[in-house]
Amino acid sequence: MIAKTFLLALLALSPLTPVLQGIRAADAAPGWQQIVAARAQLYGHRNWIVIADAAYPAQSRSGIETITTEAGQTEVLRHVLSLLDRQSHVRPVVYTDAELPHVAESDAPGIATYRKELAELLTGRTVNTLPHEQIIAKLDQAGATFHILILKTNLTLPYTSVFLELDCGYWSGDAERRLRQAFSPTPAK
Fold this sequence. Notes:
Helix content: 40-55%
CATH topology: RbsD-like fold
CATH superfamily: RbsD-like domain
C-alpha cells in the first residue's frame, strides 16, 4: 500500500503527468452511444437527431453538435431508433431526401443495397421525403432555437442522411389540433 501511494505521488510530480491525465481523459470520454443516450433524455419536441453520411458538413450554428461515430450508418440509425422507441417523452418523425430513390447504382455503387436496408429499418414508420435543401432549411431554422445532434457515419453514398425531428411522445398532433380548435377565440358577431 505504501509503495502504491509513493508511486502515485511520484507520477503526480512527473513531467508526464499532463500527458497521462490527457490519456485518462480521452479514455474516459463518452462514446457516441452514451452521448445519444444523454441527449435522448435531455431533448424534447423540436430537437433533431441526424444520422449523416461521411460528407455531411459541420454546420456553424451554436446549437448544432456534430459527432463522428466511425460506425456504419445503418448501425447508428438502428441504435438511435431503438433508443428513441424506449423513450416515453419523445418520438421520432423521420425525414429522408427525395433524391435518394433516384440515385443510380452506376453513379453510386451500393446505393440499391443501402435503400433496401433503410427500408427494412424504417418498416412500420411514416417516412417524410423532401428535397435535401428543404430538409436542411428546416434543420437550419430549428437550429436557431433548438439543439440538434448530428451523428456522422462512415457511409460514402449521396443523399443517405436520415433526419429525425423529435416530437412529443405522449401528445399527438391530432390532440394538439383539437386543443387549438377548442382554445381559439370565438369569432365576433
